[in-house]
Amino acid sequence: MQRWLQAAALVSAFLAIPAARAAENPCNTDPECHFWQTQGSGGAYWLVPYRPFHIIGNLYFVGSRNLGTYLITTPRGNILINPNFDANVAMIKASIEKLGFKYADTKILLISHAHSDHNAGAAKVMAQTGAKYAVMEGDVRTVETGCAADFQYGDKPGGLYAKAKVDRVLHDGDKVELGGTVLTAHLTPGHTPGCTTWTMTVRDGGKDYNVVIVGSPNINPGYRLVNNKTYPGIAEDYRKTFRKLKSLKADIFLGAHPDYFGMEPKLAKGKPAKGKSDPSAFLDAAGYQAYIAERQVNFEKTLAQQQAGLRK
Length: 312
What we know:
With 312 residues, this protein is α/β, with parallel strands linked by helices. It is 35% helix and 20% strand.
């Protein structure tokens, strides 16, 4: 009897392992998020809620532990950048309201690029708030086909998401304006053809700060930089992106994923006033340039490896 009980206990413990792992990593339980994990793109903290906080001026963080979502408040309503996965939308809504703002006041929806970890929830946000959706031209078809037109993931069912109608097609250098706040859309292609880096000037404490929200200079697992039939100009587009990113002045460095800019370490070193974060903790012009340089080195290394592979 005792041996049977021991065996039963072992079986129960074994069966509990998947549940424990799912609890540790909520991404395992969400089909959209789990797909990205299978692509080798991380995901462990994508569906883990994170406390919303004030960054600087009228700019706030309302994302998850490693998905960057940004709220920009204005007297005429608010701008939201990156609705992320469908499963993140409720978290984003709760974060906005925890900060004392109204989710329903979201008037404009923007994204960094057309992968589901940054825009799969767009259709839901639009339906819930009536927000108008503005997307860079190179990503419009991908967004409106629910990723079916994507050069890398369009033939993979797990990468698909709800289709969303784009209200405004953006081009490099276009301005998005609301209530006195102006954002500039910079085309930084490669990661996707319409990958977008956003910049804005924020006033805080009587000073102006240049904010850069990086789209993505990353090369996902499986990306072909050489002889890519579905995206022939991908390598040159990455080079354009690095030229553009290096030309931008960043006092405040942010990005589509918080690990780009070391969000948690920066928050830990700040000395926030009550109800606010410490803007000085995010002042990181040198860190911005170092990040871009490191990503460019990674790109050139990957490109050289793929070119060498073709010559063998």
